[in-house]
Amino acid sequence: MDRHLFPDDLIHAQQQWHDTYRALAAPRPRRTTELRRRLLLLSVRIHWHPFWSTPAGRTAAGRVELRQRAAEGRTRGAA
Asked: Which of 11, 26, 66, 78 is most buried by a 10 A CB count?
């Protein structure tokens, strides 16, 4: 599997997306409007990041790897 060199800000945005999604998926979340807006903002930031315009970012596998790597970092940090 190719390991992409993702920019730190892109990885951080994906990690924040995961955190926001989990907060929104919790039973009886508070501040749902704020969380939904944050999720939308992060989704746009990730989708339109300049990395995806580079040759390394033009593959669908890159987007999957980004999500996996961001989730991986969170589970390691929580352990």
From this structure: 66
